[in-house]
Design brief:
This protein is of the alpha+beta class. It has a six-stranded antiparallel β-sheet. It is globular and about 30 Å long. It starts with a strand and ends with a strand.
Length: 77
Amino acid sequence: MEKTLDKFSIGESGVVTSVIGEGKIKRRLFDMGITPGAEVYMRKKAPLGDPIEITVRGYELTLRKTEAECVKTEVKG
């Protein structure tokens, strides 16, 4: 099942399939290690869903909801 990173529940994990968005946001996500094939794990969500904290490539990363909406993933079952 494919969905964007902002739709993940706490404890859910998946593999990045693509990163969509305009130049600056896409480049920023790539620089942070969010590239196709990278495994991501949802660690925490703020009460209103923004920001979120994920684990990617062995480190914790905090993203804004607008950034997380640009990351398409394949959810691990």
